Amino acid sequence: MENIKSLSETTVKTTPPDDKYANSKSFQDFINVLSQIVEKHGAEVLNEIDGVE
Fold it and tell me: Which residue among 2, 22, 26, 48 is least enclosed by CB atoms within 10 Å?
């Protein structure tokens, strides 16, 4: 990740969800699960992308 200097031209910029959705229980549950997945597998995925094992 430290090799990334700026956003690619093909990177899609998104807007954050509206407040009603962002404050919903289902959205918070989704974010929590996604965070757990990234914490558990993030380093492994980044190493595969970089070609380091």
Answer: 2
